[in-house]
Amino acid sequence: MEIINKIREHREKEKQLEWRGTFKEYLELVKQYPHIAQSSHSRVYNMIKDAGVLEKDNHKMYRFFGEDIFGLEEPLEKLVEEYFHSAARRLDVKKRILMLMGPVSGGKSTIVTMLKRGLEEYSRTDAGAVYAIEGCPMHEDPLHLIPPHLRDEFYEEYGIHVEGHLSPLNLMRLEKEYGGNIEDVMVERIFFSEDKRVGIGTFSPSDPKSQDIADLTGSIDFSTIAEYGSESDPRAYRFDGELNKANRGIMEFQEMLKCDEKFLWHLLSLSEEGNFKAGRFALISADELIVAHTNEAEYKSFINNKKNEALHSRIIVMNIPYNVKVSEEERIYEKMIAGSDMADVHIAPHALRTAAIFSILTRLKEPKNQTVDLVKKMKLYDGEELEGYKDQDVEELKKEYQDEGMDGIDPRYVINRISSAIIRKEVESINALDVLRSLKEGLDQHASISDEDKERYLDFIAAARKEYDEAAKKEVQKAFVYSYEESAKTLMDNYLDNVEAYCNKNKLKDPLTGEEMSPDEKLMRSIEEQIGISENAKRAFREEILIRISAYARKGKKFDYNSHEHLREAIQQKLFADLKDVVKITTSTKTPDESQLKKINEVTARLIDEHGYNSVSANELLRYVGSLLNR
Ligand SMILES: Nc1ncnc2c1ncn2[C@@H]1O[C@H](COP(=O)(O)OP(=O)(O)OP(=O)(O)O)[C@@H](O)[C@H]1O
Ligand SMILES: [Mg+2]
Q1: Which residues of the chain carry a pLDDT beneath 70?
Q2: pLDDT for res 602
Q3: pTM here?
Q4: Residue 53's closest CA among 83, 73, 82?
Q5: Which ranges carry the PrkA AAA domain (predicted)?
Q6: If you placed Cys at 468, which of 354, 385, 439, 608 could pair as Cys (CB 3.0 to 4.6 Å)?
Q7: Does the C-beta of 72 come closer than 6 Å to ligand 1?
């Protein structure tokens, strides 16, 4: 019965929020809480701001979007600052239709849905409360009741600009129901709800021949004409178009550019003048955020058509590109899978990451900076620290192209390919190779990929596989060395002691016998060779490390295993090389002996317990790495 209680609780909470009073009482509320009279644009902006703003690397990150949208911090910052913030301050952008432009399945609809759902919730909070003339189908702003000639005075007293004039329907009701006494008009608090068609609307064009403008602006109610005597009596009109219903909130205009012109003219007037024409009435004022979305091709053909100039100048376009960070892409897939019927399937570690690497590579543009290749760029974008590159370089790379991420592989494609890999495999467990294979096969069926792109994409599959091979080897290596980090640290300390002695021309002390001994050249070289440091370059490399250590010391920082990317890599590879033979033998023998079997079982157990594998994927990993090492 838990759920019944919850339902009751919810109902009671909603009841407590209700408010009803005369216009006079409403004005007292406004005096106390001026924000309740804010415009729709301002409400949307405050909703986003109130959810919290984090500052990161000179960028604002809006928590409002954080839960569902990943990796788009910069485009979203621009969207919030340049559109919502300016519109909230009554700047001219408010008069523009917001158009989100981006590649397919790049999160445009998700963003709009978040705004819509967000507003529904926000209107139930104190900060987002909205009030309307009671019983008005358009939830008209009560302040429209203030006669135009008194609005300057109202502004003096309340500091609020009233825009828009009383609608024909409420003008008539004021006369007929309230005898012209504005102060008595009843006002109520409203709660946005798309289901109930309050303050949130969606318009999506269908067949232009059959679709009626009534869907947008309402229509005459023929059944009541007899009662009211005339078509121009506003009571004989149903104000139930999407534009009417979305008043005070937000209207999503789907496929706006596919829409018949006659629908767009209403938008023109609404966006510019804040009003639109319905039936035989004077213009109706509306205050709503109109947001549309489109892709680049559609948008280009739209602006290339001269006929659309007027509308074009009333649109503000915001780019919503694909995410270009591998780890954020992984989160996108995780989210999409969690919400799908694949939620229970075991997805081996690295599977999503490998797919993400592929996707991101297809979205990036070739760096102009010659020292960076695409894979490096991908890593830098993802915040990886690469030897020899600074944050500054990443910023420079980003500046090379203004429109990066506007094409490439979309997340939905990846999810579809993962899903078909699962169907084919029949076991509820899939790994990075399954995913890559499926991605590759899918390229043939992908309608919108040119032959030229396909060639490139196949290269990216190979690149993603290479990254996976490295990761897979490392994973197995880690599982083989019991306390991997410990061994790595010990080896590094040992190396550093030797390097120090070598550079300072000192001797080392043998920890056991206390005897003096020369630096262990063989040990140092065995590590350096892992990363291709030649005999000639060894001195420079060692000296550089020593300089790094003293630089750390000066800053009071501890030089550790993670302080030098190159050195860390060398140490890992050295450890792995030592282990290679053990791994090779144990993973690839068809008939392992008892001790090998024991080792394999231990490693499998560790992969499962500590690295997120299951028994199927752990065995697949070991077999694969065994075959890699035997090449
Ligand atoms: N950056 C992102 N962060 C989180 N999820 C994303 C992101 N990009 C895409 N998605 C996910 O991909 C799926 C498709 O996104 P959505 O439908 O919002 O895209 P769209 O831009 O509206 O696409 P279309 O042009 O096909 O209408 C959704 O499940 C969405 O959550
Ligand atoms: Mg969409």
Answers
A1: 91, 208-210, 279, 482-484
A2: 85
A3: 0.85
A4: 73
A5: 21-371
A6: 354
A7: yes
